[in-house]
Amino acid sequence: MKVLTYRTDRGDRLGFLAGESVVDPLLALGAGAGAEAAHFTDCVAFIRSGAAGRRIAERLIADPPAAARLPLASVRLAPPLAPSTILCSGSNYHDHNKEKAAAPISGKEPEFFVKTADCVIGPGDTIVCDEKLTRKLDGETELAIVIGTPGRHIPVERALEHVFGYTIVNDVTARDRQVRTKPDGSHWYELGRGKVFDTAAPMGPWIVTADEIGDPQRLRLRTRVNGELRQSASTGNMIWSCAELIHFFSINLTLRPGMVIITGTPGGTAWSVDPELGGKWVGGDGSEPLVPAKGYLRPGDEIECELERIGVLRLRVGTA
Q1: What is the phi/psi pair of residue 84, to 5°?
Q2: Could you say which of 37, 97, 205, 277 would form a disulfide bridge with 179 (CB–CB 3.0 to 4.6 Å)?
Q3: Using 50, 70 and 90 to split pLDDT, how confident is the model at 185?
Q4: What is the pLDDT of residues 135-180, one digit of tens each?
């Protein structure tokens, strides 16, 4: 099941992808829906509805009334949900660690930082290149985990049972705010201003439920900038798996429905061609030939973040 949110003049609405159509569950249920309608007020409500909401949704998707079917090409997609919290893991791919300046914990434990719902934008939206904030704006395609059932201190072997589904997040980063250099030449990361700002968490195009993904460590991830392949890797190259990250973050926080965990990015970032910040081009993991970045993201660029079995999140870069 592919779960999305689309924009209307009266506000955002939940939808389900069915081929090249969007099925609107509230339109399908009609005016007399009663209590069933509460499952479909937004994406988080649907996640919280659990098996009851899924059964109704499957029935509606299988046989929707004509009035509830909208051509996908005719709707403007919004971010699939407004997460209460985005828990982020940096330095989680072997090849990305080789291409960047080493910090003391790189590759030794997940780098833990947080983004907020204020950072989130949707498919087709504009990543703002704000030169008052950064002159080194970078993009990172990441597999994102959407939590379905709550838990704290979740064991690794049960972790994937807490997943509702998966989507794509572009972990947009201000590299010159993130990477700091000590007098001895070593580096440390400032993961506040470097990661948390307007338009820093594009998300979408939809959430694919966990049953359709299967093993999240067997997906191909790619990034294209202006058509050039910049990143390509298997999610199997993560240092810490999705299950291990769920366990890790649940030690700090009770994970709740609608929370999102982003899982790191592989090699091929613009940082890798920036020796000023300790970058070193290594060419990804060798699975596909990559085109080295010619520089950081600039207004007019188009960036495509792709994950196998999910889709493509397309964005453009512009000015405020």
Answers
A1: -65, -35
A2: 277
A3: confident
A4: 999 999 999 999 999 999 999 999 999 999 999 999 999 999 998 8
Domain end among 77, 112, 128: 77
Looking at residue 168, its amino acid is I
Measured between alpha carbons, how far is 126 from 302 in angstroms, rounded to an integer? 9
Query: Total structural domains in the chain?
Result: 2
Alpha carbon distance 128, 24 (integer Å):
31
- The tokens describing 208, both together, are 């694919």
Structural domain range at position 197: 80-318
| Phi, psi of 167, rounded to the nearest 5 degrees | -140, -170
The angle formed by the CA atoms of residues 294, 298 and 300, to the nearest 5 degrees, is 110
Q: What is the CATH number of the domain that holds 103?
A: 3.90.850.10
Name the pTM for this structure. 0.97
How far from the centroid of its chain's Cα atoms is residue 59's Cα? 28
- CA 163, CA 147: separation in Å to the nearest integer? 5
The single-letter code of the amino acid at 311 is G
Q: Are 35 and 91 in contact (CB under 8 A)?
A: no
**pLDDT of residue 187 exceeding 80:** no
SS3 for the chain is CEEEEEEECCEEEEEEEECCEEECHHHHHCCCCHHHHHHHCCHHHHHHHHHHHHHHHHHHHHCCCHHHEEEHHHCEEECCCCCCCEEEEECCEHHHHHHCCCCCCCCCCCEEEEECHHHEECCCCEEECCCCCCCCEECCEEEEEEECCCECCCCHHHHHHHEEEEEEEECCEEHHHHEEECCCCCEEECCCCCCCCCCCEEEEEEEEEHHHHCCCCCCEEEEEECCEEEEEEEHHHECCCHHHHHHHHHHHCCECCCCEEECCCCCCCHHHHCHHHCCCCCCCCCCCCCCCCCCCCCCCCEEEEEECCCEEEEEEEECC
Under the banding of pLDDT at 50, 70 and 90, the label for residue 188 is: confident
